[in-house]
Design a protein that fits this description.
- It is built from ten helices and 13 strands.
- It folds into three domains: 97 residues, 2-Layer Sandwich (Beta-Lactamase), CATH 3.30.450; 43 residues; 184 residues, 2-Layer Sandwich (Alpha-Beta Plaits), CATH 3.30.70.1230.
- Helix 3 packs antiparallel against helix 4.
- Strands 6, 7, 8, 9, 10, 11, 12 and 13 form an eight-stranded mixed sheet that branches. The chain has a five-stranded antiparallel sheet with strand order 2-1-5-4-3, with helices on one face.
- It is 37% helix and 30% strand.
Protein backbone atom coordinates (compact mmCIF):
# COMPACT_ATOMS: atom_id res chain seq x y z
CA UNK A 1 0.00 0.00 0.00
CA UNK A 2 1.25 3.53 -0.79
CA UNK A 3 1.76 6.19 1.88
CA UNK A 4 -1.55 7.87 1.10
CA UNK A 5 -3.33 4.55 1.69
CA UNK A 6 -4.53 4.61 -1.92
CA UNK A 7 -4.95 1.08 -3.36
CA UNK A 8 -2.57 0.32 -6.21
CA UNK A 9 -5.36 -0.14 -8.81
CA UNK A 10 -6.70 3.31 -8.00
CA UNK A 11 -3.22 4.81 -8.05
CA UNK A 12 -2.68 3.33 -11.50
CA UNK A 13 -6.04 4.69 -12.63
CA UNK A 14 -5.08 8.17 -11.44
CA UNK A 15 -1.74 7.84 -13.18
CA UNK A 16 -3.55 7.05 -16.42
CA UNK A 17 -5.77 10.12 -15.98
CA UNK A 18 -3.22 12.70 -14.94
CA UNK A 19 0.20 11.42 -15.94
CA UNK A 20 0.00 9.22 -19.01
CA UNK A 21 -2.36 11.62 -20.79
CA UNK A 22 0.20 14.35 -20.20
CA UNK A 23 2.80 12.41 -22.25
CA UNK A 24 5.59 12.83 -19.69
CA UNK A 25 9.23 13.24 -20.63
CA UNK A 26 12.15 13.50 -18.22
CA UNK A 27 15.75 14.49 -17.82
CA UNK A 28 18.33 13.60 -15.18
CA UNK A 29 20.93 16.30 -14.86
CA UNK A 30 24.62 15.85 -14.14
CA UNK A 31 26.14 16.91 -10.84
CA UNK A 32 26.70 20.49 -12.07
CA UNK A 33 23.11 20.75 -13.42
CA UNK A 34 24.46 22.03 -16.71
CA UNK A 35 24.35 18.95 -18.88
CA UNK A 36 21.96 16.08 -19.58
CA UNK A 37 23.00 12.84 -17.93
CA UNK A 38 20.01 10.81 -19.09
CA UNK A 39 16.67 11.48 -20.83
CA UNK A 40 13.56 9.57 -21.82
CA UNK A 41 9.83 9.85 -22.53
CA UNK A 42 7.69 11.42 -25.26
CA UNK A 43 10.10 14.10 -26.50
CA UNK A 44 8.40 14.66 -29.92
CA UNK A 45 5.65 16.40 -27.90
CA UNK A 46 8.12 19.00 -26.70
CA UNK A 47 10.95 19.52 -29.20
CA UNK A 48 11.20 19.85 -32.97
CA UNK A 49 14.43 17.86 -32.75
CA UNK A 50 13.67 15.46 -29.93
CA UNK A 51 17.03 13.63 -29.73
CA UNK A 52 18.74 14.52 -26.44
CA UNK A 53 22.27 13.17 -26.24
CA UNK A 54 23.82 12.50 -22.84
CA UNK A 55 26.49 15.09 -22.16
CA UNK A 56 24.81 17.83 -24.24
CA UNK A 57 24.24 21.14 -22.49
CA UNK A 58 20.74 21.72 -21.14
CA UNK A 59 20.57 25.33 -22.38
CA UNK A 60 21.32 24.12 -25.91
CA UNK A 61 17.84 22.56 -25.98
CA UNK A 62 15.88 24.72 -23.50
CA UNK A 63 16.55 28.46 -23.66
CA UNK A 64 13.80 28.97 -21.08
CA UNK A 65 16.05 27.27 -18.49
CA UNK A 66 19.00 29.56 -19.20
CA UNK A 67 20.33 30.90 -15.89
CA UNK A 68 17.82 28.89 -13.87
CA UNK A 69 18.93 27.84 -10.38
CA UNK A 70 18.48 24.16 -9.51
CA UNK A 71 19.16 24.47 -5.79
CA UNK A 72 15.44 24.09 -4.93
CA UNK A 73 12.43 22.38 -6.50
CA UNK A 74 10.33 24.59 -8.79
CA UNK A 75 7.57 24.52 -11.38
CA UNK A 76 7.48 26.56 -14.59
CA UNK A 77 3.83 26.43 -15.74
CA UNK A 78 2.53 26.62 -19.30
CA UNK A 79 5.83 27.11 -21.12
CA UNK A 80 5.47 27.23 -24.93
CA UNK A 81 8.38 25.13 -26.19
CA UNK A 82 6.77 24.65 -29.62
CA UNK A 83 4.20 26.87 -31.31
CA UNK A 84 0.78 26.09 -29.88
CA UNK A 85 2.10 23.44 -27.49
CA UNK A 86 2.33 24.16 -23.77
CA UNK A 87 4.37 22.38 -21.13
CA UNK A 88 4.63 22.36 -17.35
CA UNK A 89 8.28 21.90 -16.34
CA UNK A 90 8.83 20.45 -12.85
CA UNK A 91 12.22 20.31 -11.13
CA UNK A 92 12.68 18.03 -8.16
CA UNK A 93 15.62 16.76 -6.13
CA UNK A 94 15.87 13.02 -5.37
CA UNK A 95 18.79 11.94 -3.22
CA UNK A 96 20.61 15.12 -4.19
CA UNK A 97 20.13 14.52 -7.93
CA UNK A 98 18.21 17.02 -10.08
CA UNK A 99 15.42 15.70 -12.26
CA UNK A 100 13.25 17.61 -14.76
CA UNK A 101 9.76 16.36 -15.59
CA UNK A 102 7.93 17.72 -18.67
CA UNK A 103 4.11 17.39 -18.82
CA UNK A 104 2.03 18.34 -21.86
CA UNK A 105 -0.75 20.74 -20.79
CA UNK A 106 -1.77 21.95 -24.27
CA UNK A 107 -5.39 20.77 -23.89
CA UNK A 108 -5.80 22.50 -20.53
CA UNK A 109 -4.29 25.74 -21.82
CA UNK A 110 -6.47 25.61 -24.95
CA UNK A 111 -9.55 25.11 -22.76
CA UNK A 112 -8.50 28.05 -20.57
CA UNK A 113 -7.95 30.23 -23.62
CA UNK A 114 -11.33 29.26 -25.05
CA UNK A 115 -12.98 29.99 -21.70
CA UNK A 116 -11.24 33.38 -21.54
CA UNK A 117 -12.25 34.14 -25.12
CA UNK A 118 -15.87 33.27 -24.33
CA UNK A 119 -15.71 35.42 -21.21
CA UNK A 120 -14.29 38.32 -23.23
CA UNK A 121 -16.98 37.94 -25.88
CA UNK A 122 -19.69 37.78 -23.20
CA UNK A 123 -18.25 40.88 -21.55
CA UNK A 124 -18.22 42.66 -24.91
CA UNK A 125 -21.81 41.57 -25.58
CA UNK A 126 -22.88 42.86 -22.15
CA UNK A 127 -21.10 46.15 -22.81
CA UNK A 128 -22.93 46.54 -26.12
CA UNK A 129 -26.24 45.59 -24.49
CA UNK A 130 -25.61 48.07 -21.69
CA UNK A 131 -24.77 50.84 -24.19
CA UNK A 132 -28.04 50.16 -26.03
CA UNK A 133 -30.08 50.06 -22.82
CA UNK A 134 -28.26 53.12 -21.51
CA UNK A 135 -29.54 55.18 -24.44
CA UNK A 136 -33.16 54.49 -23.47
CA UNK A 137 -33.16 53.61 -19.78
CA UNK A 138 -30.22 55.52 -18.34
CA UNK A 139 -26.93 54.23 -16.98
CA UNK A 140 -28.14 53.08 -13.56
CA UNK A 141 -31.15 51.13 -14.80
CA UNK A 142 -29.14 49.65 -17.68
CA UNK A 143 -26.54 48.45 -15.17
CA UNK A 144 -29.24 46.78 -13.07
CA UNK A 145 -30.83 45.18 -16.13
CA UNK A 146 -27.59 43.75 -17.53
CA UNK A 147 -26.63 42.54 -14.06
CA UNK A 148 -29.90 40.63 -13.76
CA UNK A 149 -31.10 42.77 -10.83
CA UNK A 150 -33.98 44.29 -12.78
CA UNK A 151 -36.35 41.74 -14.33
CA UNK A 152 -40.00 41.61 -15.27
CA UNK A 153 -41.84 38.55 -16.53
CA UNK A 154 -44.93 38.28 -18.67
CA UNK A 155 -47.26 38.30 -15.67
CA UNK A 156 -45.97 41.71 -14.60
CA UNK A 157 -45.31 43.27 -11.23
CA UNK A 158 -47.44 45.77 -9.30
CA UNK A 159 -45.70 48.96 -8.20
CA UNK A 160 -46.41 52.52 -7.23
CA UNK A 161 -44.98 54.56 -10.07
CA UNK A 162 -45.25 57.95 -11.73
CA UNK A 163 -45.83 58.24 -15.47
CA UNK A 164 -44.92 61.26 -17.56
CA UNK A 165 -45.93 62.12 -21.12
CA UNK A 166 -44.16 64.90 -23.00
CA UNK A 167 -45.04 66.23 -26.42
CA UNK A 168 -44.04 69.06 -28.75
CA UNK A 169 -46.71 71.64 -29.51
CA UNK A 170 -47.39 72.83 -33.10
CA UNK A 171 -45.43 69.90 -34.49
CA UNK A 172 -48.09 69.06 -37.09
CA UNK A 173 -47.83 72.54 -38.63
CA UNK A 174 -44.04 72.30 -38.60
CA UNK A 175 -44.11 68.83 -40.17
CA UNK A 176 -46.35 70.02 -43.02
CA UNK A 177 -44.30 73.12 -43.74
CA UNK A 178 -40.75 71.75 -43.89
CA UNK A 179 -38.66 69.14 -45.68
CA UNK A 180 -38.73 65.73 -43.91
CA UNK A 181 -34.96 65.74 -43.38
CA UNK A 182 -35.16 69.17 -41.73
CA UNK A 183 -38.02 67.93 -39.57
CA UNK A 184 -35.95 64.91 -38.48
CA UNK A 185 -32.92 67.03 -37.64
CA UNK A 186 -35.03 69.48 -35.64
CA UNK A 187 -36.78 66.68 -33.73
CA UNK A 188 -33.46 65.17 -32.75
CA UNK A 189 -32.32 68.60 -31.59
CA UNK A 190 -35.33 68.88 -29.30
CA UNK A 191 -34.96 65.30 -28.11
CA UNK A 192 -31.49 66.11 -26.77
CA UNK A 193 -33.27 68.46 -24.34
CA UNK A 194 -36.25 66.22 -23.59
CA UNK A 195 -34.68 62.78 -23.01
CA UNK A 196 -31.51 63.29 -20.87
CA UNK A 197 -33.34 64.84 -17.86
CA UNK A 198 -35.55 61.73 -17.67
CA UNK A 199 -32.56 59.39 -17.64
CA UNK A 200 -30.70 61.57 -15.14
CA UNK A 201 -33.65 61.22 -12.75
CA UNK A 202 -33.62 57.42 -13.08
CA UNK A 203 -36.65 57.37 -15.37
CA UNK A 204 -37.25 54.70 -17.97
CA UNK A 205 -38.22 55.63 -21.51
CA UNK A 206 -41.23 53.44 -22.25
CA UNK A 207 -41.61 54.71 -25.80
CA UNK A 208 -40.73 57.58 -28.10
CA UNK A 209 -43.73 58.72 -30.16
CA UNK A 210 -42.10 60.78 -32.87
CA UNK A 211 -42.59 64.25 -31.37
CA UNK A 212 -42.88 63.07 -27.76
CA UNK A 213 -42.21 60.34 -25.25
CA UNK A 214 -43.64 58.33 -22.38
CA UNK A 215 -41.46 57.84 -19.31
CA UNK A 216 -41.90 55.77 -16.16
CA UNK A 217 -40.42 56.64 -12.78
CA UNK A 218 -40.27 54.17 -9.91
CA UNK A 219 -38.73 51.16 -11.61
CA UNK A 220 -35.85 51.75 -9.22
CA UNK A 221 -37.77 51.64 -5.98
CA UNK A 222 -35.23 53.53 -3.87
CA UNK A 223 -36.05 56.78 -5.70
CA UNK A 224 -39.26 58.75 -4.97
CA UNK A 225 -40.98 58.50 -8.39
CA UNK A 226 -43.16 61.63 -8.23
CA UNK A 227 -40.26 63.82 -7.12
CA UNK A 228 -37.99 62.40 -9.81
CA UNK A 229 -40.63 62.98 -12.49
CA UNK A 230 -41.25 66.58 -11.41
CA UNK A 231 -37.54 67.41 -11.34
CA UNK A 232 -37.15 65.91 -14.82
CA UNK A 233 -40.17 67.86 -16.13
CA UNK A 234 -38.87 71.18 -14.76
CA UNK A 235 -35.44 70.53 -16.27
CA UNK A 236 -37.02 69.70 -19.63
CA UNK A 237 -39.05 72.91 -19.68
CA UNK A 238 -36.03 75.02 -18.71
CA UNK A 239 -33.77 73.37 -21.30
CA UNK A 240 -36.37 73.67 -24.07
CA UNK A 241 -36.94 77.35 -23.15
CA UNK A 242 -33.19 78.00 -23.49
CA UNK A 243 -33.16 76.17 -26.81
CA UNK A 244 -36.11 78.21 -28.08
CA UNK A 245 -34.46 81.51 -27.16
CA UNK A 246 -31.51 80.50 -29.29
CA UNK A 247 -33.75 79.36 -32.15
CA UNK A 248 -35.72 82.61 -32.11
CA UNK A 249 -32.51 84.62 -32.35
CA UNK A 250 -31.53 82.56 -35.39
CA UNK A 251 -34.98 82.91 -36.97
CA UNK A 252 -35.72 79.19 -36.71
CA UNK A 253 -39.06 77.51 -36.06
CA UNK A 254 -39.89 77.24 -32.35
CA UNK A 255 -41.87 74.47 -30.65
CA UNK A 256 -42.78 74.29 -26.98
CA UNK A 257 -43.35 71.25 -24.79
CA UNK A 258 -46.44 70.17 -22.87
CA UNK A 259 -46.04 67.75 -19.96
CA UNK A 260 -48.56 65.55 -18.14
CA UNK A 261 -47.70 63.64 -14.97
CA UNK A 262 -49.79 61.24 -12.87
CA UNK A 263 -48.97 58.79 -10.06
CA UNK A 264 -50.53 55.56 -8.88
CA UNK A 265 -50.37 51.79 -8.91
CA UNK A 266 -49.54 50.12 -12.20
CA UNK A 267 -48.46 46.75 -13.51
CA UNK A 268 -44.97 46.75 -15.00
CA UNK A 269 -44.20 43.95 -17.41
CA UNK A 270 -43.24 42.72 -20.84
CA UNK A 271 -45.79 42.70 -23.64
CA UNK A 272 -45.60 41.28 -27.12
CA UNK A 273 -45.02 38.13 -29.15
CA UNK A 274 -42.06 35.81 -28.75
CA UNK A 275 -39.93 37.64 -31.32
CA UNK A 276 -41.04 41.17 -30.50
CA UNK A 277 -41.41 42.25 -26.89
CA UNK A 278 -41.28 45.54 -25.07
CA UNK A 279 -41.46 46.85 -21.52
CA UNK A 280 -44.60 48.79 -20.62
CA UNK A 281 -46.70 50.06 -17.70
CA UNK A 282 -50.47 49.53 -17.44
CA UNK A 283 -52.76 51.31 -15.00
CA UNK A 284 -55.50 53.98 -14.76
CA UNK A 285 -53.05 56.74 -13.91
CA UNK A 286 -51.11 56.03 -17.12
CA UNK A 287 -54.18 57.08 -19.14
CA UNK A 288 -54.62 60.07 -16.83
CA UNK A 289 -51.06 61.24 -17.51
CA UNK A 290 -51.66 60.96 -21.25
CA UNK A 291 -54.87 63.02 -20.99
CA UNK A 292 -53.08 65.70 -18.94
CA UNK A 293 -50.33 65.95 -21.54
CA UNK A 294 -52.89 66.28 -24.34
CA UNK A 295 -54.36 69.45 -22.79
CA UNK A 296 -51.10 70.96 -21.51
CA UNK A 297 -50.04 74.10 -23.31
CA UNK A 298 -46.46 74.89 -24.24
CA UNK A 299 -44.36 75.39 -21.12
CA UNK A 300 -46.95 73.82 -18.80
CA UNK A 301 -46.61 70.89 -16.44
CA UNK A 302 -50.00 69.43 -15.51
CA UNK A 303 -50.09 66.95 -12.62
CA UNK A 304 -52.78 64.93 -10.86
CA UNK A 305 -53.70 65.07 -7.16
CA UNK A 306 -51.46 62.15 -6.17
CA UNK A 307 -48.42 63.72 -7.77
CA UNK A 308 -49.21 67.14 -6.31
CA UNK A 309 -49.49 65.74 -2.78
CA UNK A 310 -46.23 63.83 -3.12
CA UNK A 311 -44.32 66.85 -4.42
CA UNK A 312 -46.01 69.82 -2.74
CA UNK A 313 -42.79 70.61 -0.84
CA UNK A 314 -41.05 71.15 -4.18
CA UNK A 315 -43.73 73.42 -5.68
CA UNK A 316 -43.49 77.17 -5.20
CA UNK A 317 -46.61 78.17 -7.13
CA UNK A 318 -49.46 76.46 -8.92
CA UNK A 319 -52.95 76.86 -10.29
CA UNK A 320 -55.63 74.37 -9.26
CA UNK A 321 -58.62 73.65 -11.51
CA UNK A 322 -61.10 70.93 -12.38
CA UNK A 323 -61.18 69.74 -15.97
CA UNK A 324 -63.43 67.29 -17.79
CA UNK A 325 -61.06 64.72 -19.25
CA UNK A 326 -62.16 62.39 -22.03
CA UNK A 327 -62.90 58.91 -20.72
CA UNK A 328 -62.10 59.95 -17.16
CA UNK A 329 -64.53 62.69 -16.16
CA UNK A 330 -64.19 65.76 -13.96
CA UNK A 331 -60.67 65.67 -12.56
CA UNK A 332 -58.62 67.94 -10.22
CA UNK A 333 -55.62 69.22 -12.17
CA UNK A 334 -52.65 71.26 -10.95
CA UNK A 335 -50.87 73.55 -13.40
CA UNK A 336 -47.22 74.07 -12.53
CA UNK A 337 -46.41 76.47 -15.34
CA UNK A 338 -42.67 77.10 -15.25
CA UNK A 339 -42.51 80.38 -17.20
Amino acid sequence: MRSAELPDPLFSYLADLYIHQASPAWIRLDSDCRCIAEAGGSWPRYLDKPKLNPGSELEEHFIVLCGQSFDQPFVLPQIELQDGHYTDIHHTLIDGVSWLLFLDVTEQVSAQQLQQQNANELSLLKDRQKQTLDRYMGATIAELSVGGKLTFNASGERRQITTMFIDLRSFTLFNEAYDPQHVMDTLNHYMTKMIPPILEEHGLIDKITGDGAMAVFGVQQRHAPAESALRAACKIQCDVADLNRSRREQGEYVMEVGVGIASGEAVLGILGAHDRRAFTAIGPHVNLAARLESIAKGGEILVDSATFKATSHLISSHQQMEIELKGIGLTPVYNLQTY
